[in-house]
Every structure is written in structure tokens, then in C-alpha cells.
Amino acid sequence: MSVNKVYEEENLSSNIDKVSEVENEEYELKNDDSVIITPNELKQLDKIYRKLDFRLMPALWCMYFLTSFGSNCYGLTLTMNMQQNHSLTQVLNLNPHHTSTASALYYVGYIIFDVPMNLIMTKVSPQSWLSRIVITVGLVYTCYSTLKNAGGVIAIRFISGMVGAGTWPGLSYYVSLWYPNDRSTRRIGYYYTAAQISAAVAGLVSAGFQKMDGIRGYTGWQWMYLVYGSITIFVGIILLWWLPDRPFKSSEDNSKNKIMTIYNKIFTTPHPLNESDRELHRKDLEHRYKLIKWTWKDVVQIITDLRIWPIIIMYFGVVGTGFGLAVFGSTIIYANNPSLTSIQVSLLYAPIWLFDLGGILLITPFADKFKKFRPLIFSFACLIIICGLFVTTFAHGSWKRYGGLLIAGFGLGPTVPICMSWSAEIFFKKYGDVGTAVSSALVSGLGNLGSVTSTYALYNGWPSDKARLYRNSNMILVLMLGISIIASGVCHLIKDKIRQ
């Protein structure tokens, strides 16, 4: 029987009240279909998802930490060992046009390949595909240590985006395989903290690697890329055994393929749940697996569904701001206080992302608990970012400006997880498995045009803005965030009125 169970807060609270008098009485949670769950089963489901959290979240966290670390490293290498003339910019004679072009092409790689990469993931073993991403990212970043000129930087940044494409939407898709939508935003927030921690750690680690500058003829940034790339390759291989495959096999699985049978015996880990928990988990997620076949017609329908575009615009503003601060955060800090050393700049870069982590931990649980208020929660977070950007632009004194970066970091935290879980909620209902995969890839891919804007057109891509302490760049980010707030309201108005 196909079922579609949704944990709407008002339905859940009212149904729990009805069954509280009779301990084992069954009740229904209804949306389009219904599912029968007892109060005891509901408690057991909480335990099951906590068990899955301990198995899946550390692996997803490590994966996102490592794939995000490289991008954060790149921004820091532009200022590492500046006093010794050994920064990436100085060693390779990069000008602002080179750095902005290289940064933009990184996101172009994502934009081009995000959708096809995520579509492939719906057809293959997701744990193997995610491992492939980590391994190839590690290989490419190891090659950064051999860069000799600006052309190499531009080329390898595009390749980095290409091999990393599908990471964020792929992780969101993988979570949707194991968790219902009313539990997904918090889980996306859990591993999204890895991006913030990686940014903070990158700042601290880069300070240490600057002490290695000149050892065996390598600069500090070359040592950082060599060590980071090697560790990433190693962890990517481990993920083949750490992450489980899909929770339930579909009818399309080809058990007669001898090569795949051998591969699965070697690399597929046992299911993380016992038989009884597995059956209850299947009951809770059975609706998730009723639309797993798709054609290119379905893909075209999703792309032409008007509801996808407000979410893309939402993502455009927040991810553009996030990556603008991630890549050029150290540049902004140094411009506001030129007396700082490169090591001090790296150390001050880290707390921005610890504040971002705090925003995730404090705000994302409310986005799951109060799903109907997701646009308001998203808009509130955007207003916090705007407040931070105004402080860092117009406050008097370098430390007050730095405080504005911390405020902006706090607001950034919950915005991206809300975008991804909202797109999954809206598009799974009509399109099923491919709706989750394609919508997350489109939001991530096309939304990264915001990253292109902030890294190519703003900050280093706008040399005259440096004398203004990047005032105009910051204000354009404020404008982008304002448009994202409007888009969230539009999405709320039309999400149930188109193609339903």
C-alpha cells in the first residue's frame, strides 16, 4: 500500500491527545494518504532516527567538512605569508582579474554539472557516488601544490567545481532517502555545520602552515594543499565502507549483474538497523519510495515548474553572501585593519564561522518544528545578515566592523538548510524521487550564480571598491538578500497553487 505520512504539528498534537487515554489505541496522521502508527511506535521511531544519526551524520559531516575545506583554503592562500611575498597571489603574480575569474569559474563548474551529477546519483549506489566526490576532490586539491601560473589557477578552479558538483544536493538527496521531510532540516543543519567548522579550522590551520613556509622549498600554502588533499583521498576511500547504501532496494536493482554483485559484496556495509526497526522505518518512509522511476520528461517538468525559481532566488542571495564572505572574508578583515599580520587575519577569520555554527544549532530546529513558518524564519535570518553587513560597512573602528562580520555569520547559518529542505518538501509531493534530486541540484547549481556574482563582480573583482573598504560590495549583498526575502514570500504564496 502506498502511503504519504506527514508530521504536521497540528495533526500530531491533536492525534496524540486522542490516544493518550488508551495506551495502545491506533491513530491516523493524514495528508493525501494515511498511515497507522501507535504511540509506542512513534517513540520507537525517535530512537530509530537517533540511531541513524549516530551512524550517518558523522560520515556526512566529515564529507562536507573536507569538500568545503578546499574552497576555504583557496581564499586564505591569497593572503598567506604576505610578509614573505609567498602568498598564492604573490608567487604566481595574480592580479584581481585572475582571482575573480578563477573564483567565478569554480562556481560555473558547479552550475553546469550539479544537475547531471545528482541525476546519476539516483541511478547508482549513493554511498559510492558520494565517496567518488570526496576522492576526486582530494586528488584535484593535491595538484594545487604544483601550480606555476595564473592560467593553471583558473583551469584548476573550474576543475575543482566540476569534481565537487553534486556534493551539496547529493547530501540533501541522501538524507531524503533515510529521513522524512519533517525531520530533514535539522539533519541538513547538522552536517551543514561542517562548512562553518571547516572555515574556522581552515583559518586556524593556515596559521600553522604559514610557520612551515620554506621547509623543503615549499611555501606554506603548498604544504597545506598537499596535506589536505592526501587526507581527503584517504577519508573518501573509508566512506565506501562507512556510509550504508539505500535503506530499501528498489525493483530496478539488477541483482543479475555479476560485476555489481561483486562490488556490493566488497563495498556495501550491513544495514544499520535490526529487522524490527527496519520494518518500522520502512513503514514511516514507505511514501518516499512510491515514485522512484523517472524520465527526461519529468526533469523538464521540474525545470519548468514556476515554484522552483523563488527557491533558487532565495538560495542565490544567501549563498552569494556566504561564499563572498568565505572567499574574501580574510581580505575584508585585512582591508579594515591593515596593521594585522597574515597569521592574525587567519585567526580572526575563524570566529565568523563559529557564529555561523551557532545560528544553525539555535534556529534550524524551529524550521522543522514549525514548517509553516519556514519563510518567516528564513527572512528573519536574512535580516540578521543584513544587520551584520550594515555594521561591518558603516561602524566606526576596525573591531566594530569585525563584529558586523560575526553578526552576518550568525544569520547565514540556517538559511541554506531551509532552502534545501523546503525544495524537497515541495517537489517530492508531485514528482517523487527525481523531484528531490533535480530540485536540490537546480537550487544548488543555479543558486550558485550568487556565488559567481560575489566572487567575480564584487570584492577583488571590483578593485576601486577596496578604497571604500568594500562598502559597495557589501551593499549589493544587502540588495541580494532583500530579493531573497521577497522570493521566500512568493514561494509561500504559490507553493500549493501550481501543478497540484
Automatic annotation (TrEMBL):
It is found in: Membrane. One of its GO terms (biological process) is biotin import across plasma membrane. Gene3D superfamilies: MFS general substrate transporter like domains (1.20.1250.20). InterPro entries: MFS, MFS_dom, MFS_trans_sf. This is Major facilitator superfamily (MFS) profile domain-containing protein. It holds the Pfam family MFS_1. One of its GO terms (cellular component) is plasma membrane. Keywords: Membrane, Transmembrane, Transmembrane helix, Transport. Residues 63-499 form the Major facilitator superfamily (MFS) profile domain. GO terms for molecular function: biotin transmembrane transporter activity; dethiobiotin transmembrane transporter activity; solute:proton symporter activity. It comes from Candida verbasci. Its main location: membrane.
